[in-house]
Design goal:
It is a single chain. This protein is mostly helical. 52% of the residues lie in helices and 0% in strands. It is built from 4 helices and no strands. Helix 1 packs across helix 3. The radius of gyration is 11 Å and the shape is globular.
């Protein structure tokens, strides 16, 4: 799941190097630096890729602290 999340982040940022530099411990907020529009696109692409519906009321900042934490959040959906 981490590799798919990283691939989506690289696509949104249009930076293929991210696929090599991001790890499960990388912060979606700090290390990737998504702006608000990119964050919305990221979440929509995640929903489509994994067939999950994200409840934005349950999505907390802490869930975006790392790719691993975000993947764990997705597992709960």
């Amino acid at each position: 799941m981490d590799k798919k999340i990283i691939a989506i982040l690289a696509d949104i940022k249009e930076d293929e190097k991210l696929k090599d530099t991001l790890t499960g411990e990388s912060s979606i907020i700090d290390d990737v630096g998504l702006d608000s529009l990119e964050m919305i696109n990221f979440l929509l692409m995640i929903e489509e890729e994994f067939g999950k519906e994200i409840n934005f009321e349950r999505l907390e900042y802490a869930n975006l602290a790392s790719i691993n934490k975000f993947a764990a959040f997705l597992e709960t959906l």
